[in-house]
Each structure stands twice: as structure tokens, then as C-alpha cells.
Amino acid sequence: MHVTKNAKLSTYHCIMKLHKSLIAISSVLILASCETAEISHETAKSLVYNCYSCHSPNASEASRIAPSMAEVKTAYLAKYGSKKAANNAMNAFVNSPSSEKVVMGEAMERFGIMPNMQYEKTDLQHIVNYIFSNQIDSREWLSQYNSGASSEPKIDKSDYSKLGRHIVMSTKKILGKNLKGAIKSQGTEYALDFCNTRAISLTDSMGVVLDATITRVSDRNRNPDNAASPEEVDFIEMYSTLIASNRDLSPILKGGTFYMPIVTNEMCLQCHGSGDEVSNGVRTGLDKLYPEDLALGYGVNEIRGIWRVDFGTYAN
Ligand code: HEC
Ligand code: HEC
Questions:
Q1: How far apart are CA 234 and CA 249, in angstroms?
Q2: How far is CA 180 from CA 58, 106, 231, 270, in A?
Q3: If pLDDT is split at 50, 70 and 90, which confidence band does 7 have?
Q4: Cα separations in angstroms, 206 against 43, 165, 168, 198
Q5: Residue 159, Cα to own-chain centre: how many angstroms?
Q6: Cβ–Cβ < 8 Å for 227, 215
Q7: Of 27, 101, 262, 274, which residue is most buried, by most CB within 10 angstroms?
Q8: Residue pLDDT, tens place only, 237-255
């Protein structure tokens, strides 16, 4: 969590107020409590930004693409009994979503399994702690944080790692939404187009400002345009070794290019799996569209490829 100029300023105001009222507590304690308030404010924004685009509190039934976060929280508390156990289970699920860990079976049936968003572990811990220690469905909370205003985080434009991650996350959210919506409304066979990133314009404002482009490449590509370069194949192999031994998959920044791994989950297997997982209809569609398809035969939690963000003219 980074402390912004504003955060410092409000910490200062906070101290001044308390000093004026002459409360006899050590200033160290005061500082600590003011900073905690500021961190939780940042975490609330990060919860809305990272999770509410799918777990919206106010989407209509028809446009819903995931249960609301308040429903998820209730289901976890009911299943696990204590906040601590619910908290651990939620962290474990979001770090690597799988059907064995699912608590809300009906939601998974209806929306498909949650994509692996690869949040940073400490950011996620902050968010999950926050969910279990605040009234995230109260009217006050929603009017303060879920006002519909754009909640893009402030990122230093020279921090290409953060920017790269931000652009990948924004794209994943759009892609995840469109893909699930398409499968839900029209069935997998008709959803084939939706895995095409070129069909998605980069609406992310930071990407546009920085003239960044985002693509996905793979060592076992479906679309001939998405073939990885030899160096990128090395990155993919490195990530495959890391994921097999359950290690962290840190992004790579090389020159003006940022990479992040793409991990499969159960939903992907409808179009990238093997045997019965891929229906005959989907196979026929794929044969027609991609005669040189290499992207079948994956299992869950494998490296399907990498995201690549090129920073255009800004990086060198
Ligand atoms: C791209 C859309 C998307 C984003 C972003 C997203 N989720 Fe989800 N999430 C889903 C969908 C869809 C489900 C319902 C299917 C399921 O249970 O896997 C779900 C379910 C869950 C569940 C319940 C799983 C269960 O046990 O049934 C938890 C917990 C969860 N999400 C936490 C989070 C948190 C925390 C964040 C933000 C840090 C987040 N999600 C961001 C789509 C998303
Ligand atoms: C509805 C079918 C479908 C589903 C579900 C699906 N994909 Fe795809 N995927 C495709 C198609 C079709 C392409 C080729 C897109 C193109 O022409 O650019 C593709 C391409 C890709 C590519 C680009 C590299 C390449 O091989 O051309 C990646 C990476 C990828 N998919 C990952 C995933 C992941 C990860 C999931 C699950 C979260 C997933 N896909 C789910 C159909 C699907």
C-alpha cells in the first residue's frame, strides 16, 4: 500500500485535531491509528476496483455476472463459522479458484468458475481482511465507495511494472466478463470469437495515454498471429516450472515490455481441454477457424501463455 501525498496530508490533519483536543496519548499511537484509517480507505477503493466490476452490489439479476460480495461473505461465514476460518478460505479460493473449494455451488453453475486474477498475495490479504471487518453492504459504505465514479488507482507513469499489471488486470476483467456472458447466453460453440483479444479495444485510460498495446502469446498457439518468440517461449517454460512447484509467478519487465503469465482454470477447458471436455460442436468450429490449432489438451492450473504489454514510445 503506498502513501500518497493526500494520505500524508490527512494523517497530519488527523494528528492536529487530536492534539488540539489535548488527549494524553502518545503521538506514536495516534499516528498508528490515523494511518490505519488511511490504509483501510485505500483498501476499500482497491476492493471496489478489483472485485466489484464482477461482484457488483447493484447489478440487476439479468446483467449479473457473479454474486454480490455481500452474498459471498455471508456464504463464507455460514460455511466456516468464524471470521478467521472464512478469511483463510477466501484467500485460498481467490489465489487459485477451483471447483473443490467452491462454497456457492449454484453461483458456479450459473456464472462459471471465477477466473484466476493473480492478485498480489498481500493486496488480496488486505482486501479480504477488509471484507470481514467492515459492513460492506451498509448504505453508508456503498454511498462512500461504490458511487460509480471511476476508481482507477493512481499509478506513477514511470512505474512500468505497476502499469503493466494494471493494464493486464483491466483487460482480464473485460475479457472474463464478455467470455462468460457469451457462453451463458449463447453456448460455448458460439462464444469462440470472444477469446479473441483483438475484438476488445483497450478502453483502459492509462493504456491509451501511454500508447500501450496488449496481446497474448503462446508456445502452443491457436491463432497463428499469437506465436511466442523464442525468448517468450523461455519465459513460458520458466513459469511452467514455477507453477508446477507451487511458487510465485512474478511478472517480467524487459526493456519496454511487460509480461505476466496466463493460467488455465476449469472454464478454459471447454475450448482448450482434451477428450470430452471439448464438445463436438466446439471441435468442429475450431477445425474450421483454426486448422493449425495447437491450443488443445490443457489441464487446470497450467501456463496457457503470457500477456505482453508494449509501452509504445514512452519506454526505452
Ligand atoms: C472477472 C470477474 C471477477 C472478478 C474481477 C472477481 N471475481 Fe470473484 N467470482 C467471480 C465469479 C463468476 C464467481 C462465481 C463462481 C464461483 O463461485 O467461482 C466468483 C466467486 C467468488 C467467490 C466465491 C467462491 C465460492 O466459494 O463459491 C469469492 C470468495 C470471490 N469470488 C472473491 C473475489 C474477490 C475477493 C475478488 C477481488 C479481489 C474477486 N472475487 C474478483 C468473478 C470474479
Ligand atoms: C469459448 C471458447 C474459449 C474459451 C472458454 C477460452 N478460450 Fe482461449 N481461445 C479461444 C479461441 C477461439 C482463441 C483464438 C483467438 C484468436 O483468434 O485470437 C483463443 C486464444 C487464447 C489465447 C491466445 C493464444 C492463442 O493460442 O492464440 C490464450 C492465451 C487463451 N485463449 C487463453 C484462455 C484462457 C486462460 C481461458 C480460460 C480463462 C480461455 N482461453 C478460454 C477460445 C476459448
A1: 14
A2: 19, 15, 32, 12
A3: very low
A4: 21, 11, 11, 18
A5: 19
A6: no
A7: 262
A8: 999 999 999 888 899 998 8
Instruction: Provide residues with CB under 6 Å of ligand 1.
Output: 50-51, 53-55, 65-66, 72, 90, 93-94, 97, 102-104, 107-108, 111-115, 117, 119, 124, 127, 173, 176-177
Atom number of ligand 2 nearest to Cα 193: 12
What is the tens place of the pLDDT at every residue in 109-149?
888 888 888 888 888 999 999 999 999 988 888 888 876 54
Q: What is the pTM of this model?
A: 0.70
Q: Pairing between strand 213-217 and 252-254? A: unpaired
Closest residue by CA, ligand 1 atom 9:
114
Q: Which atom of ligand 2 is nearest to the CA of 295?
A: 26
Closest by CA to 212, choosing from 176, 171, 151, is: 171
CB of 226 within 6 A of ligand 2: the answer is yes
Q: d(Cα 265, Cα 310) in Å, to the nearest integer?
A: 26
pLDDT score of 287: 93
Could you give the 3-state DSSP secondary structure of residue 157? coil
- The DSSP H or E segment spanning 261 is strand 257-263
| The C-alpha cell that represents 111 in the structure block | 456464472
Protein residue with least CA distance to atom 6, ligand 2: 268
Question: What residues does each domain of the chain span?
Answer: 162-316
**Mean model confidence pLDDT for the chain:** 80
